[in-house]
Amino acid sequence: MQTILRLDLAGQPRGWITLHEAITAYAKGDVVYGIGDVLPPIFGGIQRSNGLRSRIDLQPIVAIQGKIIQGFSPPLCNRTLFRRDDHRCLYCGQQSARTELTRDHVLPTSRGGTDRWENVVAACKRCNWQKDNQTPEEARMPLLAVPFRPNPWEWHFLAKDRVFADQMQYLSRRFRAKRAWAA
Ligand SMILES: [Zn+2]
User: 78-139 — its CATH code?
Assistant: First the structure.
């Protein structure tokens, strides 16, 4: 299902909300501004005051009243991690389905490696098994790209399978779509 990109008043993405949640925010007057081409209108009930049907012109991106929270820590899950790595094993380069990939800790957890964006990569089962408890250097399995923490814009993009063109445009302005891969 299509969802609406929610922003805070500073224009930072703050999550994906359902159409229903967006309509509720509009009805409550919490939407401060919208961005993007208006979606097909949504009609509500007849308004008692003027006998007209209420109508909401929803936009794919809405900024909603509320506190501006400083800092955003993008949650780490395999789905978004594998999308960050283009469903590619960062050791052998093979692209695989989500079910064939694993989360590999570059510095293994058994040796103090932590579960954070900068220390995890997508790896096929074979490479993960082969690398085992070693660092890439010890295993002689150099990484094909540097693991990184996505910024809020990129994370919101990665977290969603389908986005409207306006949402894609809004988000992609703030991150580099191309990643440097080792030849
Ligand atoms: Zn591999």
Answer: 1.10.30.50
Nearest to 92 by CA among 131, 66, 53: 131
Residues having C-beta closer than 5 Å to ion ligand 1: 89, 91-92, 124, 127
Going from the Cα of 135 to the center of ligand 1, the distance in angstroms, rounded, reads: 15
Q: Which residue has the tokens 């990184």?
A: 148
Q: Where are the domains of the chain?
A: 1-73+159-183, 78-139
Using DSSP's 3-state secondary structure scheme, residue 120 falls into: strand
* Burial (0-12, 13-18, 19+ Cβ within 10 Å), 97: exposed
Going residue by residue through the chain, which has 183 residues, state the pLDDT in tens, using 9 for 90 and above: 689 999 999 899 999 999 999 999 988 999 999 999 999 887 777 778 888 887 888 999 999 998 777 788 899 999 999 999 999 999 999 999 999 999 999 999 999 999 999 999 999 999 999 999 999 999 999 999 999 999 999 999 999 988 999 999 999 998 876 777 886
CA atoms within 13 Å, Cβ hemisphere of 89:
22
Residues with Cβ within 8 Å of residue 55, at least 6 apart in sequence: 41, 42, 43, 44
Q: What tokens were used for 82?
A: 């594998």
**The residue type at 37:** D
